[in-house]
Amino acid sequence: MANMNSNDAEQPSSLRKLFETANNQRHELEHSTAQSNPPTYQDNLRATIGAFQQCQQLTDRLTIFSPNETEDDIASVDLQYLLINHYLGELLRQDSTTNRKTVLQQSQTAYELYLKLLDTYDMLSKADTKLYQRYLSSRDDFSLLSTSDPTARRNTKISRYKQEQELKLKLRSLAQIPLALQQNDDAASRELYLAEVQLCTHNTFHALDIINQELQILALMPHTSPAPQPEEREIDYRHRNGIPNNKDDSNYSERLDPPLSQLLNNGKAGPILSKEGKPLKPFTLLDSRQRFQNGVFRPDHSLPTMTIDEYLAEEKRRGGMVDGGGQTGGGAGQEGNEDDLEKADMETMEKREWDEYVEANPKGSGNTLNRG
């Protein structure tokens, strides 16, 4: 393992200061109350992401880590720089100002670089190594709960939760060591950094699981085209309303509203179709211009189409009316001639005979055999 003091002499202080500043900004974001104000929080988030990206660029330029080294070759003070990509993945997931799918893919890439660096130094535990190999074999389908058995899934959740609590407890106990003692005791500071690496590795696999789930949901969402830019909307508006769009045109104007004459005519002035044949405003096809003009000042109710005399003549033609009086046919409802005395006497005799018959044969007197 390289000597810590010699490594400190070789490492520029700018990296240490830059990482310390970025890490302080990350802690401020975690305990910030500005989350109720998204614009402010997102601005601080982007600044913190930029600071960690500068740290990563400086680490690569200084070749702090090399694939030819082992874990023991890394100086204790350099172990904290292993977490740069993990912090980047964690911060990128919180970015809500850009395309969500792009943000998740960037976060996923940062987490993958973090795990790849740990795998290079053989710093992954046996369980984490198996998870990492499973992730590499199926990036798109990776899940911590790979089985469909509900009991096994529940046991996996419980075991990972207990593991996380143990790592947090270990990290808290090591963090209680005084800072001065950590700086003078290389073993204590190294154990603290390694405990933090273990906790971040545990959280990395959990984050990759969540990212895959969210990417699968986004893949099922319908594709939406991006909103047109203001310049595109202006060109489309000019094209639809027949407003010149070419600045070299003599009639070109920066104004997008129609001319005053067109506004006074309620938009009826101007051409109906553009030169390309595209409708510029709504219109109605009529069979006759004169028919349209005749219907302008007519009342809103339906007017009669014929006079009364014309109606009566039409009814007579169809046989609905009869001219003159007299009998049109026999019937019991017609009244007789009052001057015909013989006929009147016959009707009187018929009524008397009927009355005598009714009196001699009361109702119900005909059938008496079935009475009890």
What is this structure's SSE topology?
Layout: H1 4-10, H2 13-30, H3 38-62, H4 84-92, H5 100-120, H6 126-137, H7 150-175, H8 179-184, H9 186-220, H10 230-240, H11 260-264, H12 289-294, H13 308-318, H14 341-360
Helix pairs in contact: 2-3, 3-4, 4-5, 5-9, 7-9
Q: What structural class is derived from the secondary structure elements?
A: mainly alpha
* Fraction in beta strands: under 5%
Q: What is the helix fraction of residues, given as a range?
A: 55-70%
Principal-axes geometry comes out as: elongated
Low-confidence stretches: 1-10, 329-333
The whole-angstrom Rg is 50 Å
Total number of β-strand segments? Answer: 0
Report on this structure.
By secondary structure, this protein is mostly helical. The protein is built from 14 helices and no strands. Helix 2 (13-30) packs antiparallel against helix 3. The longest helix has 35 residues, at 186-220. The chain is elongated and about 155 Å long. Residues 1-10 and 329-333 have low confidence and may be disordered.
